[in-house]
Amino acid sequence: MSILVLGVGNILLSDEGLGVRVIEKIKEGYVLPEDVKLLDGGTLGIELLYFLEGSEKLIIVDAIKGGGPPGTLYKFSGDEVKAYFKGKISAHELGIQEVLGIAQLTDRYPKEVVVIGMEPESLEVSLELSQTVKDNLEKLIKSVIEQLKEWNIEVKHVDERARHTV
Question: Taking residues 36-62, what's their average pLDDT?
Answer without folding.
Answer: 88
